[in-house]
Amino acid sequence: MSNQSPFSLLATPTTLPIATIALVIGVFILDTLIDVEVAASVLYLPVVLVAARVFKTRGIVLVAVGCAALALLSHVLSPGNPWSTTAILDRLLGLAALGFTTYLVAKNRSAEEALAERVQLLDLTHDTIFVRDAKDIITYWNRGAQELYGWTQVEALGKVTHNLLHTIFPEPLEQINANLLRTGRWDGELVHSKRDGTQVVVASRWSVQRDQQGRPIGTLETNNDITERKRAEEYLQRQATLLDQTHDAIIVWKFPGEIIYWNRGAERLYGYAAKEATGRSSHELLRTEHPMPAELFEATIERDETWLGELRQTTRDGRKVIVDSRHVLVRAPDGQRLIIETNRDVTERRHAEEALRRSEAHLAEAQALSKTGSFSWVPNAGPTEEQLYMSDEWFRIRGYDRRIPMTPEVMFERLHPDDRERVQEIFNRTLAEGRGFDIEFRLALPDGSVKYLHSVARALRDASRLEIIGAVMDVTATKRAMERLQHAQAELARITRLTTMGQLAASIAHEINQPLTGVVTNAHTALHWLDAEHLDLDKTRMAAERIVRDGQRASDVIGRIRGMMTKSTPQVAKVDINGVIDEVLALTETELRMHSVGVVTKLAPKLAPVSGDRVQLQQVILNLVLNAIDAMASVSDRPRVLRIGSQLRTGGEVLISVCDSGPGLDPETTEKIFSPFFTTKEKGIGMGLSICRSIVETHGGRLWTEPGTPHGAIFQFTMPPEASGRV
Ligand SMILES: Nc1ncnc2c1ncn2[C@@H]1O[C@H](COP(=O)(O)OP(=O)(O)O)[C@@H](O)[C@H]1O
Ligand SMILES: [Mg+2]
Question: Among 400, 386, 225, 248, which residue's Cα sits nearest to residue 321?
Fold first, then answer.
C-alpha cells in the first residue's frame, strides 16, 4: 500500500520525475541561451504542471521555487541587458505566472491529499466499504473489504460487485435498486461468497452518490459481517423452538422480579399467553403456594443454585395445578440473576396417587375390620415376592411378621395337622385344574391356639400363566359364637322338650298305666292258674307271656321318654325319617285318642336316610303334631284328622308334612308364629315353632306353613339329601 502513503514526497514512483528533471534542464538551457527580453520563464509552467502530477503539495512548491530560482539565474546569464525595463517586466510577469500557477496547482493538490487522507481513514475501519459506479463496477475497495472477502484492491477494482461476490439478495435486485433511487439508501442482509468460497452474512448499508446535477453516479456500500451473530441468533431461535416443543412449562424470570420468558408449554398449562405473562411476577401471576417461606427459598437457591420441589399454582381459569418444579439460578453476562423455572404438571398423577392411597387405606382398613386377608399367587413363576402377594391382614391372621420371606411353603405352615392333608390336596387340585376353591380349615398357632379360617379363591388363567387370587377370613370368633349358639339352642331344645313332656305327662302316665294294669291283671290270672285246685300250666304261661309283653310296652314308653329328656348335645347320624314319624305317633297315641283325632299316614316307601340328630327331628315332628292336636280341640262340627306324611322330592330332598283340620291360621298370625314366645294358648310358651325352625335350618332344611284345604293348616319342612347335611 506504499503507493498511497501520505508521507512520501512522490505521487508516483516511476518515470515522471525523470521527465520533470529533464524538462527543467531543457527549459533552463533554453531560457539561458535566448535573449533576456523573451519571456521564456513561462516555459516553467508545464514543469509545475507536470510536478503536480508527480509531487505532493510541498514537492510542487519546492519545484516551483527551484524553477523561479533557475529563471532568475537564466535572467542574469542570458544575452542582452537583464536590467532593461522590458527584460525585468518580462521576467516579473513570467515569475508571477509561475507563482500563480503554483498556487492553484498546490491548492488543488492539497485538497486531493486531504481526500486521500480521508480515504486512508476508511482503511482503518474494520467495516467493509466499497464504492461502485452506476454500472456496479467497483471503483473503491477498502482494507476491510480485502480482509473480509480476500480480494486485494487491485483484484477487486473494475469488477462488477454482484458477480464477484455472488450476492444473494433478500428481495429482487430491481426492487432494491428502485427503492435505493427513490430514498437514496437501502439496508438489509446479504449473503456474499468470499474468495475461498465460504459464505458470509453481512448487514449491508447502501447510499447513493450523486453528481452536482443530482444524477446518480455510484453507490457506497458498507457491510458488516454478522455471520457469527446470525448463527448465534439461529441457535437461540432453535433453542427457543425446542423449549416450545417440550410439554413442560418453562419460565425465566429475573431474580427477584418479572418474567422475561414464557414458553408455549407455560401458555398451555397456565392459560396465559407469553405476552400477558412477561413483565409480571411469576409468584403473583400463578398464586404459587410454596412449601417453604420466601426468605428460606431465596437463601436455598442462592446457595445451591437449584431448587427442586412441588408447587401448587393456579391457572388463568382458576384451576389448581400441582407441578413438579425445578428452579435453576443463572447469572447473565451483565450480572443479572435469572431463574429458569421448569414445571411439569403432575396434578393428574397426584390425584390418582391420592385416590389409590385412599382406596388402599380403605381396603387395608376393611381387611382389618373384617379380619379378611387377601393373597395372589402365580404358582409357576417361582418363589419371588412378586409372584406371591399377601396383604398385611393375611400376615396378621397367620401370626407372621410382615417381613418374613414369602415362599409357597409358608402358605402351608401352621395348618392344623388334621386339616393339612385336605387343604394341600385342594390346593394341588386347584393348581392342576385351574379352578377356584371355597374351604374351611384350621390353623394351629405356635402358642397352642386354634384359628378357624374360611378361604375362597378364584383362578385366573390366561395364555401364559395361572394366577390364583383369593381371600381368607378369620372366622374363629364366628365359629365360636356359632358353637355357643348351637349349644344354647340344644339346651333350649332340651328344656322345651321337657316342657312338652310335661304337657304329655297325663297321656304318658295313662300310656304306662295301661300295660301296668295289664301286668297286674295277668299276674292275678297266672296266680289263679297256679292254684292247686285249677292248676293249668298252659294258661299260666299265656298269662306270664302277656305280663312280659305289657312290661315290654311300658319299658318302651319309658325308653322313648328318657331319650327325649336327657340328651342335649346334638349327635349327627343317619336317620330314618319314617321311623321317627312312627315313634312320634306311638308317643302321642294316647293323646290323639283322648282328643278324638284320627290319623292318616302317607309315608314314602324306601326312603333313604337323612343325616341329622334323631332326637331333634323327633322333637320337630312331635311339636307339629301337638300343635295340630291343640288347633283341632275347638273343632266339633267335622272330623279331627291329622295327616302326616313323607315324600321324596326332586334333588333327593325329603319333605315331611303335618296337616290338620283345625281352624287354620289367619295371615296376620302366620307372620308371627315362628317368633319366640308367640302363643295364642292360655298355657302356651310360644317356643315350639321357633325351636322347630332353628333345628330344621341347622339341618340345612326349611320349615314353613301353608293353609290347608278345605280347613286347617299345613306345616312342612324339608331335609336335604344325606350327603349335603352340614350338622
Ligand atoms: N296347626 C296349627 N293351627 C293353627 N294355629 C297354629 C298351629 N300351630 C301353631 N299355631 C299357632 O302358633 C302359635 C305358636 O305355636 P308354638 O310356637 O308351638 O307355641 P305354643 O304351642 O306354645 O303356642 C300357637 O299359639 C298357635 O297360635
Ligand atoms: Mg306348640
Answer: 248
